[in-house]
Amino acid sequence: MPIIGVDVEKCSNCKECIEECPTKNFSMEEKQEHIVFDGSRCILCGHCIAVCPEDAIKYDNMKDTTFIFEGNKDPSELISYEALHNFLRAKRSIRQYKPNKVPKEIIGKVINSMRYAPTGANMRNLKCLIFSNDNKKKILTDSIINALESGEVRESFRKRQEKGLDPIFYNAPHVLIFYSKNPWDTLNVTIAMTYGMLSAQSLGLGSCWIGFAHGILQDHPEIKKKFTGIETYVLGVMTLGYPAVKYFRAPPRPPIEVKEI
Ligand SMILES: Cc1cc2nc3c(=O)[nH]c(=O)nc-3n(C[C@H](O)[C@H](O)[C@H](O)COP(=O)(O)O)c2cc1C
């Protein structure tokens, strides 16, 4: 059990953990001297670790360190609304890439950002397969195009291939395939990939969702097994690489209709 309980030497009985725990694993009855932890419903969200002013939550084997807000900063102080808003507006789906590969440690940074995305019930099943080998990417592109339902789309993609273009992965140096043993992880993967794509942009990288590849790998288990070796559920595919395009402005987007009742 990675969350072990409360260090009574440090605990000041402020009861923040009792209030904060979403599955109510902490308690302190009137006659009790210390807060008691019963981990039977614990989902390892770590909110107790985050909220404890005394750092009194004991845990083990969480495979990560904590990120301490220096000077007790509020997260809103980490980045301004304007900076974040403009960064989000500037995010583009990149379809032109430089051929050079991204160093492993930089890809690692992108994937590392994904681990902090929220997931339903704090389930953490996400796995990633990276295609960096150009020949293997080409074979995957061919198999996806061959499996496309619409003959018209298939033909137009093949014509683009004849011109040396990759109409599925845009000759990106890397293709990241996200999968999980749990088919209900789709939303979790979508959010994690969004985190990763934003993280990638902060590192000067570009990315693009590849719904075509996701759809084919999802609907054709034989292609998935043969070309990726994945036996569980493919829930998202994206390209990654250095953009070979420069944008001068962010395009306009329609407003979201909002109703309040
Ligand atoms: C779920 C999803 C699937 C997508 N699939 C593809 C795809 O297969 N190929 C592609 O070129 N772009 C794909 N895109 C990118 C969209 O076309 C793109 O987001 C849209 O054109 C708006 O451009 P922007 O992302 O630069 O704002 C996908 C986007 C999402 C969110």
CATH superfamily of the largest domain: NADH Oxidase
Secondary-structure element order, N to C: EHEEHEHHEHHEHEHHE
Give the total of beta strands.
Answer: 8
Helix content: 25-40%
General shape: elongated
The largest β sheet comes out as: 4 strands, antiparallel
Mean pLDDT: 96
Name the poorly predicted regions. Answer: none
Separation, N- and C-terminal Cα atoms = 44 Å
Radius of gyration: 23 Å
Domains counted in the coordinates: how many?
2
Within the CATH hierarchy, at the fold level, what is the topology of the largest domain? Answer: NADH Oxidase
CATH class of the largest domain: Alpha Beta
Number of helices: 9
Report strand order across the widest sheet.
5-6-8-7
| CATH structural architecture of the largest domain | 3-Layer(aba) Sandwich
Structural class: alpha+beta
Please give a structural write-up.
- The protein has helices spanning 16-20, 47-51, 81-89, 104-114, 134-147, 151-162, 186-202, 211-219, 221-228, and strands spanning 3-6, 26-27, 36-37, 57-59, 127-131, 174-180, 206-209, 233-241.
- The protein has 261 residues and is an alpha+beta fold.
- It has two domains: 3-71, Alpha-Beta Plaits (2-Layer Sandwich); 86-241, NADH Oxidase (3-Layer(aba) Sandwich), CATH 3.40.109.
- The strands form three sheets. The chain has a four-stranded antiparallel beta sheet. A two-stranded antiparallel sheet has the order 1-4.
- Strand 2 (26-27) and strand 3 (36-37) form a beta hairpin.
- Helix 4 (104-114) crosses helix 7 and helix 8 (211-219) crosses helix 9 (221-228).
- 26% of the residues are buried.
- The model has no long low-confidence stretch (mean pLDDT 96).
- The protein binds flavin mononucleotide.
- Flavin mononucleotide binds next to strand 7 and helix 8.
